[in-house]
Amino acid sequence: MKKSWNIPRRTLLTGAGVAVALPFLEQMLLPSAHGQAPANPKRFVAMVFPNGIHMGKFTPATTGPGYALTSILTPLAPVKEDVLVVSGLENSILMSGGNAHLRGFAGFLTAATPGGTAQPLMLNNHISVDQVMAATLSGKTRLPSLELSAGLDNAVQAAAGDCDGTPCLYGSVMSWKSPTQPALAEENPQAAFDRLFSGSAVPGTSTPGGGADPAADARRALKLSVLDAVKSDTQSLSAKLGPTDKAKLDSYLTSLRELEMRVSATSSTPLPPSQNCGSPTRPTDAYANDYPKRLQALMDVAALALQCDVTRVITLIGAGWESPAEFPFLGVSGDHHGISHHGNSAQNLAYLEKIDTWEVEQFAYFVARLKGMQEGAGSILDSSFVYMGSDVSDGDLHNYVNLPVLVAGRFGGAVNPGRHLMLPPTPIGNMFLTALQGFDPTAPAFASSQGALNLT
Amino acid sequence: MRIAPPPLGACTAAVDPGRVTLRRLGRSEYDTTVADLLADTTQPGQGFPNDDAFLADALTVGPLLFEKYDSASEQLVAQAWAREVAGTQPAPARLWVCVPSESNADCARQIVTAFARRAFRRPVTEGELAPFTAILGRSDGSLAERTQAALHAVLLSPNFAFRVEIDPEPFSLTPHGLTLHELATRLSYTVWGSMPDATLFAQAESGALAAPGGIASELSRMLASPKAHALTDNFAMRWLTLGGVSALTRDTNLYPEGTPILFSAMQSETEQFLKVFFGGTEPVKNLLTADFTFANQLLAQNYGLDATGLGSDLVRVTVPAGARRGLLGQGAMLSVASHSNKASAVKRGKWVASRLLCTPTPEPPPGIAETPEALAAKTERERLAIHRADPQCASCHTLIDPIGLGLENFDAIGRFRAEENGVPLDVSGQLPGGQPFNGPEELSTLLAADPRFHACASDQLAAYALGRALSTPDQCVKDAMSASIASGGSVPQLLEVLVTSSAFTARRGETQGATP
């Protein structure tokens, strides 16, 4: 077996006490992906940066191709021809009542109004578009979807799960598997990497070009027997419960089955040597106290996940709702949410311009990573739809009209980038439907959509 | 054995005891539980998704968490097994209730049986054990490996990961008492954030817990244990949103003193302060009016207190009469409700309204912006007055600003100040409802006597202990708790009212058509 990168000792010790070399990328062996030479698969990535954008320094003055980059869009220069700037999208469904940031965050990928239960703290969102896509891809990749977060939640928010009378979870989750089931995000880039690329969760996986491993097969068999026991135990328990409790256990069972499917689908048979993703490199640190580096490491893991086709659907939270992030390295004084209530003061707007430019720079970094990953005659970016936006448009006004929207990639021809597209007021659900139809061409609608949006 | 309905204690009439959804262990409860169950202090839960919430409905499950449970379970068992092999596993957490060997299938079975009982916090039937012991009979790996796999499965079982309470009739709305094991589990997670210990198990087993005074005497024993710090960490610091204070940062140009060391000290100060209340006879009301706190040299200097003789350890100090009283005089609260570059009367007013009075203030509705005139104002009071001139802003800000303005004597790291930008501070204000005050001390005194604070503290403690928001049928216990606070009751007294009420000792099923 070949060890191509450093794995912490703790990871090596897993698996019934037997040291295993972990690298392996077995997703190519999943039946549906094996032995075919399909067209490059489509991918969807959504990134959110909270507290709005200083739109005056964001929106280009002219439309169409050849527009001039505004100051906030300057970091797009190296990838300008791969990015579509979209103006005029709105999420007006969110307009009524409640905490404006939480609603914007909760509705970021759902295009639906959260809440509306008898008990205000009960979760009641809408399935998010990435999770609809993930459901269509189930079984095609090792993970149906990947949720990441650079964290930086408002310290005040987490307490007691009650944020201004709204569930705090609305502000720390972008992906929703159902109205009541948020898909919580991984915040640690090393843990995210291990989940994708190490054998600890899925024993018996092997290195490209490595040999078969009977010990690993035995471990996998035991792991399956563990999952089987828990499944039968969960079902017996479920039979004794009422509907609400049963629903919670159903989520537990579904999660169990997802893991079981991955474990059963693996094999220690060597992978074909022509692996698209080479030897992925584990982040060298978790960067627990270094926000910019943590975010970058998470983007690196996300890019690798797409390159290795471990998943095709990723959401990445740049920072949580009402993010109090500080940017001393940009010469900015104060916290992001505080500054976003700019009151049109020149100082605050100048700070926002710096913060927002930095955010676009992060997006550009990720886009450039995908562009540099060759696939077939093009790049991973060519088959991707990479969306970046914010919970609100103007952080001071808390409005959901004329949202800041960037879309990178060609999405296999469904997006024609390198332009500034100025739309009349259009529901953002329309854009989500366009993205969804890349995975399910027959999808008729999504949430508040009123028809697909032509992005070509 | 079940606790008899109607149960003991104050609010015991046949009121609806409410119903909590199947409640998962939070990640800190998971860590404390495996520390007691397996003597494992690696805190795997720190790598789980953040779920520091009271309400069972906010404790969701999904694939990421399940995978983390799976690998944590596997590693916890492997490490405990390795300690057994080395002979270093401490007694209360022993796995080997017999000496295992490859030929001793019976011992393997005993190990799994004994572990399941402790992990599930209740007696376990043969039928329930069957899926786990089936692993022992497989042909994969050695018997030792299969035994560990079975223990791994026990830890991954929902019977471990959730605090399971079974309604004998899931669709009956008639209240029924909890089983004594269910009750013991509620008690231990409320007070210790962990599983019951051997004594509490025995009390459930023998029925002593159901005897008159049984719950109250266990409660006193549990509160006297150091493990009761869970009430501070899992309840109070979350209620007050102060659990993240040590990670706060400040604009280093404006507040070079706002260092990680200072913020860590502030968090410890408030934690140690709260512990005084959770262990003893200090009235709950004194949370706001106490004339003592905990300080080291750095904190004392920051607060302008006498730092003579103080070192780096925090010690209890008396705070001289003046502005600084109770929680609202502590750096933790004052800093959490500030911006990184300035104090904020709005954030502080909002904090008091939502945390102490349980009247959350919504964020401004869409379409409202700050005005440049307001930003140009010299003092916060002046700025907010301009702000409130806009009727759309006024509806909420007239409620919160006048509270926060009373705390303007403290800057963004809790230092005392008499003026802002050269202008002497006017620290008069009023509570929602109109009671006027002048300065932080009067504000604290008013709040301590305010029935809304008594109700709010009761509400929060009950929501934490019950895992659900209170509703109309809970009014009896809420009133009893509020009355206890009003008459100078301590936290232990308050807890006794709560844990002997039917809201805590009973539950019911749900209607057939209930939708999750």
Please give the number of β-strands of chain B. Answer: 10
- Spatial strand sequence of the major β-sheet of chain A: 2-14-3-13-12-1-9-4
Number of helices of chain B: 23
Q: Which radius of gyration of chain B do the C-alpha atoms yield?
A: 26 Å
Number of helices in the DSSP assignment of chain A: 10
Biggest beta sheet attributes of chain A: 8 strands, mixed
Helix-strand layout with pairing:
The complex is a heterodimer of chains A (456) and B (516).
Chain A: H1 9-12, E1 43-48, E2 64-65, E3 83-90, H2 100-106, H3 129-137, E4 146-149, E5 162-163, E6 166-167, E7 175-178, E8 181-183, H4 189-197, H5 214-239, H6 243-265, H7 291-307, E9 313-317, H8 336-340, H9 346-371, E10 374-375, E11 378-379, E12 384-389, E13 405-408, E14 419-427, H10 428-437
Parallel strand pairs in A: 1-9, 1-12, 3-14, 4-9
Antiparallel strand pairs in A: 2-14, 3-13, 5-6, 7-8, 10-11, 12-13
Helix pairs in contact in A: 4-7, 5-6, 7-9
Chain B: E1 23-24, H1 27-38, H2 63-86, H3 105-120, H4 126-136, H5 143-156, H6 158-161, E2 162-163, E3 176-177, H7 180-191, H8 198-206, H9 214-224, H10 229-239, H11 260-279, H12 286-289, E4 292-295, H13 297-303, E5 315-318, H14 331-336, H15 345-356, H16 372-376, H17 380-388, H18 391-404, E6 419-420, E7 423-424, E8 428-430, E9 436-438, H19 440-449, H20 451-466, H21 475-486, H22 491-499, H23 502-505, E10 506-507
Antiparallel strand pairs in B: 1-2, 3-10, 4-5, 6-7, 8-9
Helix pairs in contact in B: 2-5, 3-4, 3-5, 4-5, 7-8, 9-22, 10-11, 15-18, 17-18, 20-21, 20-22, 21-22
